[in-house]
Task: structure prediction
Amino acid sequence: MDNLLSITIAVMLLPLAGAIVAGLFGKLIGRTATHSVTIALMGIVFLLSIYLCNQIILKGHPAIDATLYHWVASGPFQWDVAILLDRLSAVMLLVVSFVSLVVHIYSVAYMHDDPGYERFFSYVSLFTFAMITLVLANNFLLLFFGWEGVGLVSYLLIGFWFQKDAATAGGLKAFIANRVGDVGFILAMAVILMVFHSFHYSDVFAAVPAMSNQTMLFGGHVCSVITLICILLLIGAMGKSAQLPLHVWLPESMEGPTPISALIHAATMVTAGIYMIARMSPLFEYSEVALSLILVIGATTCLLMGLVAVVQHDIKRVIAYSTLSQLGYMMVALGASAYDAAIFHLITHAFFKALLFLSAGSVIIALHHEQDMRRMGGLARSMPITYLTFAIGALALAAIPPFSGFYSKDMIIEAVHLSTTSGAHYAYLCVLAGAFLTPLYIFRAFFLIFHGKKKIHGPIYENGWTTLIPLIALAIPSVMIGGVLIYPMLFSTPHLLGDSIFVLPAHQWLLSASASYHGALSMAMTAKASTPFWLALIAIAISWIVNVQHASIGDHLKSVFHRTYAVLVAGFGFDRFNECVWVRGARALGAFFYQVADLKMIDGFFVNGSGRLIRFISNTGRLLQTGFIYHYALVMVIALLFFVGRFLLGF
Amino acid sequence: MIPESYFLFVSALLFGLGVAGIIINRKNLITVLMSIELILLSVNTNFITFSYFLHNTVGQVFVFFILTVAAAEAAIGLAILVILFRERGNIEVDQLNTLRG
Amino acid sequence: MFFHPALLSLLIWLPVLGAVTIILTGGDHHPTLARVIAGVISVANLLLCIPLYLQFDPQSVLMQFTEDHLWISAYQIHYALGIDGISLAMIILTNFTGLLVIFAGSHSIKVRVGQYMAAFLMMQGMMTGVFAATDAILFYVFWEGMLIPMYLSIGMWGSSNRNYASIKFFLYTFLGSILMFIALLYLHIQTGSFDIGHFYQLHLSPNIQKFIFFAFFLAFAVKVPMWPVHTWLPDAHTEAPSGGSVVLAALMLKLGIYGFLRFSMPIVPDACAHLSGMMIALSLIAIVYIGLVAIVQTDMKKLIAYSSIAHMGFATLGCFMIYDIVRHTSGSQDAYMSLEGAVVQMISHAFGSGAMFLGVGLLADRLSSHSRNIQDYRGVANSMPIFAAFFMLFAMSNVGLPGTAGFVGELMVIMSAVQAHFYIACISALTLILASAYTLWMVKRVFFGMTLNREIGAMCDIHGYELINYVLLAIGVLFIGLYPEPILHVLHASVGHILSLSIPAVS
Result:
């Protein structure tokens, strides 16, 4: 027990040590030493994570729940920095440390020429620390620490190239959009503390069933406490996991270095919201309203962002919108109470999306930081390995059996199909549409990049092995992990995640799906009977025809549906709306308060006004002082007469 | 016997003349000094009157004091006046308003 | 009790003595000597705080390290000192900030060095006195005494508009304090004493309480500052030398909160309970309105000044929310966190904003125009990477990121706000967005981007005293953020005591 605890703490702190070494002493010890140290530490963390996973999941070691130190004790409350390593966090730990390790290695080549090399490694390690903290927290407070920590590092990394205005603007936008979500999260924490008097997961979850009927007066309406908490938590998750309408920051975040897009904005940080809701399943299960809301928001994000992805030209933005859409899938799974399926998709997505990003990064390096797909084409021959890995990623994303994405996505669609939570029908239609759109956009990108005519002159070379090994390392799980994990994740008893996830008996849609499950292989073989599979194939075919065979069709469609096209290119106008209403609104309001209320009213009228009033009175009063003796004498006489008269006559 | 009110009346008249002299006069500063003398004289008259009618000599002693002070004051006043004239070239009351606020 | 040879008096008068020595030994004619004396004294003072902290008994609610001598017998005025946990924290903070300011000044002040050092030492002594006084008149003397060196520091070492700013600062704060003085005299008449402890035992009628509340309110609200009497602060901050800004932000604003805690709430609890709605509204206005105003500032110091006002809104919110929390919940237990959060907020705010003011000061020192305008800077991170890294940390503390000092107080206040009313929590939580918007937008415009001109490109990174200051502050920010318990530890009993005095018996 003690042994496992110290290993867990080591897993948490080693990345921090790496970050400190790289950040404070990076310039001192040089580039090679910096990446050696951080990669070595990440390697250790990965190995330790395997060990922990093995202990917790395969050996069935009881979950570790330990307090490290008391953070704040105030009045009746005591808040601890305390960790929980159970099945869910062990799985997440493994995913995070693996992807992080791969990205560390990949960055050696990718960031080779960058002057901020040491800083970059420091940030990536710091991110890993924050993410692991988030995953290992056993209470809402430490969760929030990690939650904000990853937000901070994401901000720093998006703005990594701080000389580029677009990068720093993207970072700022990401941070503020995340903060909007955090308002929800912190309010959720406050309500939780008020209702449950504790931040500790186990205390809260234990008390939920008893609280499920409790209501509170909220703005004149009676509202279930659990629903309130869940909706507030959902707002937090919407910020972090970039769900509509707080998704606007994710496309901008692509201004950061590509390894970061892979690690933070695809594999780990953006899935923190998904992880959080899965972790809170005992809460969400008791709120039908919140589940429906999750379904609707997730489904809408899935559909709309899939549509937007189709019209992007920047290779990274395509993948970014695809991430949004896939996060929508995970949300839908959560809404359908298929938490295991959501985490399953989170894992497979982490691998294949990181793979896609890193492959895209490989293309980007080879083309000397060219990201516009319209200027690419015909790269398949010159970059065979990247071509292959991108293809694997795309197939996995498109849910083609037997690639990993197929299993997870199919189960989500299945679960939504069976779900009776209100909004599930809508969500089902959306995810079906998504299943059509996903292959459409990703194969559009694939064909534009690797097929067709070569548009770049001069030789193009495949990258070196430091770039390719991470790709291959990610390609393998992208192919395999779905088939391997589907049974233990979803259908075995107990599930891989075991009691980390709680599902009400009435919401066991996945259980009903298990009746038709006869092994991973047969599931892949019988895919031809399912709608999503055929949708995907049609989409790939369309993509092939439009992008490779008859490129003119695309232009023709564009001119026919130019209005729709404009809406899609504008991303449904969310950015414009935010810019016009929130950003300009806040500035205008601030300027009004400052110029009118502060400067004119308070300062001008009251403060300086009182000064002016006094000056006016004295200016008037001093006119009495003429300087002529006879005036003074006259006043004296009048006063004298007045007082004498008053004395004598008594008036 | 002349009743005391007659004396007091003269005194009040002198006082009034003095005050009027200060207030009304706009021309010469010397007139102001003379008016002040006049006011002091009216006070003296009052002192003497009451001293006589109340059979108390203290009043007459005071008159001597006042005469002395008035003389000194007139001397100082004239001295200032001379310097003022040298400095400014005129001693018209209308021009002397350097104390104006 | 432990042996303490007038430790508090020593803390108060040692800097004052130092100031006098500097003036007597030639002051401005021997700048190096002045720097050395000031440095030695401020270090000595900070060292003296160590026995103060170690010998302090955090379990006791009584005043500790007490000293009591009759001063003016005719009016029963005593030279009475003593501290509880809140004062202890504030005194340590004062002496810590004093050290920073002396260090910062010895680098950047080139004219009238002796007078500068003397003024800041004097301020440090007076400030310590305010926190240590347990006699109302002594408190008042220190309270006003502190204004003079501050007034001088703005007026003498300030920038272009310093006359307006210093007079505005003085009149604003003085106007407030006069009414407080009248209230103190009234309380003296009622009790026959100037001992603050005796004031607590008064049971005044509700109407009288209201009058006294407003008299105190004006004095303390100006200091905090609360909307709408806040407009002196941006001007004073902008014009003050960076040391002055640091003292203003880190300490002087806290006097207002301290006054509320020490005077308003325990002496006139019924009036406070009655008027808590107004105070909460003003605090929320400070948080949202001032946050919005901060966004549009073009002057860095003004921006940070406005952000200080917004952060102080949390402290006043935490103070006056307790009445609503008690009204809504059964016991006073839940209100405890709110009050403690307010105290923590006022301590933690000192680090973040103090550091940011220092930063703006040293940026302006490096530019020949001494401009503080955001638009005159760009890409500072290129030439000053270490400074940029530090500044980012302090900016994050200002934003209220977990793990930094700024988070602790805000979290505690928001957590308790929901018990007063859900909407109070909602509005106060908006600071998460606003603070990140104004702080990080400024950071973006000043530090990021391509370097604007050659002068910025040639700026040298922080070194020497600047680096020492920043390392000290960074340690403070991270320590409070990651492990606030040692600070809370000394506060618990005292906050509980004030809470019990401040909650009227009826509720």
About this structure: Chain B has a mean pLDDT of 88.
